[in-house]
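Incident log, structure service

09:12 report received: a user says their structure output differs between two submissions of the same chain.
09:20 pulled the input from the user's history:
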Amino acid sequence: MIRELEENEDRYFARKQLKYFGTAADRAERLKDRTSYLLEYAQQVCDAWQSLADARQNDNMRFLTVISTIFFPLTLITGWYGMNFENMPELANGYPVVILVSLVVLVICLLIFKKRNIL
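09:34 re-ran on a clean worker, output below:
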């Protein structure tokens, strides 16, 4: 709008006043450029923060996946042997075997995770 006023097509302004329109137009242009630069910078900061938040969330999800992978087989084993059926062959002396099998599963899971550098 300032550029249009500076053209002075209808000769509303004196020649002496037109130089102020040029100055105002230049300042407005610089402010517009600065504002667009600041908007781009703010977007970059927002993207960097989002990337950091995503990385933290990925680490948390990896940890929860490891914990779930370790405890799901143990839950299955204890579910089978926790039913206390009368004719279950392991009922008399099977609980130490269940504890041993659970520990073996736990150690195997931990070794696999260490080998793949997940833990």
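09:41 both user submissions now match this output. Likely a transient worker issue. Closing.
09:42 reviewer note: The chain has a mean pLDDT of 83. The radius of gyration is 36 Å.
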